[in-house]
Amino acid sequence: MLRTTFISGFPGETDEDHRELVRRASELGFARGGAFAYSQEEGTPAAEMEDEMLDEEVRWARRDEMVAGFQARGRAWAHAQVGRTLRVMVDKMEGLDAVGRTEYDAPDIDSTVRIPAMPLAPGSVVNVRIVAADEVDLIAEMAPVGVDATMKYSTKAAIVDCESEPLLEECVADVVA
Length: 177
Known about the structure:
It is built from 2 helices and 10 strands.
């Protein structure tokens, strides 16, 4: 999994330079990435390149084009994960849903994994089965560990026991420290 960030509209960047950057970013297959529009920073060598400064509209349009490419590849990656089992670190709870990220994702930047109706302590590392993709984010359920009759699931920080009903919405979580 390759991740990168680009500056779009750096002073002196030509249309040809930008087209090549977009093409190469696509060819290299960056699954995660970002772009930001160049902004002049006082005291930097680029700040002295005022005669080569691109219009703000051009810088933002180029940034938007780069971001759109990363988003398209992110959506394709997310949809390809449906049915797979992935390791997820829980970052927080939103209501009763655990929200985390895969080992491929940077916190607060990349995709998230939502595990509905599954209270887990932040910091828990769990194996989940991806059941759907919502744009670049994933929806998951706990992946079974073993095959015992009670459908027991386990993590480093929580144990979830689905005694009589195997549906996760019916599960009761007993979070341990």
